[in-house]
Design goal:
The chain is 44% helix and 15% strand. Strand 6, helix 8 and strand 7 form a beta-alpha-beta unit.
Length: 491
């Protein structure tokens, strides 16, 4: 398996080289030259556990890792740090299936991929004879940051710097990041929104001058965002897993279509579902659920991607994104893997703020259904599931749960709602939806209240925050982000 850029650089990378690089030199994203097809029957996969399924999927993408290397990465990643042996729990509540991806150490779905990325990276460096230290540079809309910090904390030969939009994440998300320990970690708040952070990070990745400065200090860049193929491919696993476990539970028969409803911001999570479909999993519709920053909803309904709009801070902050980076991979595929045409569209997005795709591309993307939920609809959905069956969901999951109910009005295909975060990560928004009188000024105190009404154990990730000290308190302008990187590598 070789990887190439979505923007025209013809250099072919092995999977381990692509994991190390993170982003192509021309600013494009790495994509496999050919998407593989599952070589194990679904019936056989249904009898395997999460780790075994992970191997069957990842071996097709990470082909220059030996079986022993890949299995070691998988076993180290998916261990006792998850609070369930299943790693991902498929539950049925209120007549609807939810794929709970928040049982990892930071109680968000990003743990599913970021738990394995450091192991893939360490192995890749060794395989390629690279002795440089690696600087992981990441922009976060709330969840990636903490998951990446947790994953790379104290990993030898690495440092990690995370940029987050100051005031643009939940109080719990921010506290998780700014209390992060580890001498190799740095967290910086940025005066701007997530798109500002992400755009600047991608710009720095493509800056040859900054790369030279890193090199002279013994570092090279890599990324923990889903722009890194080492982040994206592990996400494919849980869609394969969900499908075969629905088979095992006799909820669907082999070959029956299954819809996935995904709360979507940067587009990596739903793109992984698309890759699973291309690999042969009988996925039906891919329901792209957006909040009020509905740039993807508008795109799939009009063919025009237009970021020229007001940026709205919502109760689902991890989805507050107007530039969905991973959409570029889908656009590239829709163009028949034509990197030159894709580069023109990406340049237009950067220069003019929008681009438009043609009828052939829209036909290629016909399995995507876009639905959005406003703040009131999100709140009502949280209350609906609590009142009807006692199930508590977070705001991001509620966006998807609402979209699922809307889609079911016209589509009776069975579906799975992808649950991306624990409600304990967004206690204020969740409690205000269930009963506003339960809201207080103390977010950690509200965790106890949420336990009282849900009887779901308070995750260790939350209880440990009570006495955690703030370690990272730096805030900078977007223009100062490169200086923060320089300062970090020199110390």
């Amino acid at each position: 398996m070789k990887y190439i850029s979505t923007r025209g650089d013809k250099t072919e990378f092995s999977s381990s080289q692509a994991v190390i690089a993170g982003l192509a030199k021309d600013g494009g994203l790495f994509v496999p030259k050919n998407l593989p097809v599952l070589d194990v029957p679904l019936e056989e996969l249904s009898k395997k556990d999460y780790r075994e399924i992970a191997y069957e999927v990842m071996k097709l993408f990470f082909t220059d890792y030996t079986k022993e290397e890949l299995c070691e990465c998988i076993n180290r990643a998916y261990d006792k740090k998850f609070d369930t042996d299943k790693i991902a729990s498929l539950v049925k509540r209120g007549g609807q299936h939810f794929l709970e991806l928040f049982h990892g150490p930071t109680i968000a779905f990003k743990d599913m991929a970021l738990s394995i990325l450091p192991h893939l990276l360490k192995c890749a460096l060794k395989k390629n004879g690279i002795n440089d230290r690696v600087l992981i540079m990441t922009a976060t809309s709330g969840d990636t940051g903490k998951a990446a910090l947790e994953a790379f904390d104290s990993v030898e030969s690495t440092r990690i710097i995370v940029f987050y939009p100051k005031g643009g994440v939940s109080p719990i998300q921010e506290r998780q990041m700014v209390t992060q320990t580890g001498a190799n970690t740095k967290v910086i708040g940025v005066k701007g929104n997530f798109d500002d952070c992400q755009s600047k990070v991608k710009e720095m990745f493509s800056d040859p001058g900054l790369a030279q400065e890193l090199s002279s200090n013994g570092f090279r860049f890599s990324s923990a965002n889903s722009i890194n193929i080492g982040r994206l491919i592990p996400q494919v696993v849980y869609y394969v897993y969900a499908y075969v476990k629905m088979m095992e539970a006799n909820e669907i028969s082999e070959g029956e279509a299954l819809n996935f409803v995904v709360p979507t911001g940067n587009f990596g999570n739903i793109l992984a579902a698309f890759y699973a479909k291309k690999m042969g999993v009988p996925v039906g519709k891919l329901v792209c659920a957006s909040n009020e920053n509905k740039v993807l909803y508008d795109f799939f309904n009009t063919g025009i991607y237009d970021r020229r709009r007001e940026f709205i801070l919502t109760t689902s902050p991890s989805m507050d994104i107007l530039i969905s980076s991973n959409l570029e991979r889908l656009i590239y595929h829709s163009l028949g893997d034509d990197a030159q045409k894709n580069a023109v569209l990406m340049d237009r997005l950067f220069e003019d703020g929008f681009y438009e795709v043609g009828d052939a591309q829209r036909e290629y993307m016909k399995d995507f259904v876009a639905i959005f939920a406003n703040g009131q609809q999100v709140s009502d959905t949280i209350k609906h599931y609590y009142d009807s069956c006692g199930y508590v969901i977070d705001t991001h999951t509620a966006v998807a749960a609402y979209a699922n109910l809307k889609n079911m009005e016209n589509d009776r295909t069975k579906s799975v709602v992808v649950s991306t975060a624990s409600p304990y990560k967004f206690t204020r928004y969740v409690l205000s939806s269930i009963d506003p009188s339960l809201v207080s000024d103390d977010d950690l105190e509200m965790a106890s209240t949420l336990y009282d009404i849900s009887k779901v154990e308070i995750p260790k990730a939350i209880s440990l925050l009570k006495d955690a000290k703030v370690i990272h308190d730096r805030v900078c302008e977007t223009s100062e982000m490169p200086d923060m990187v320089r300062e970090f590598i020199r110390n």
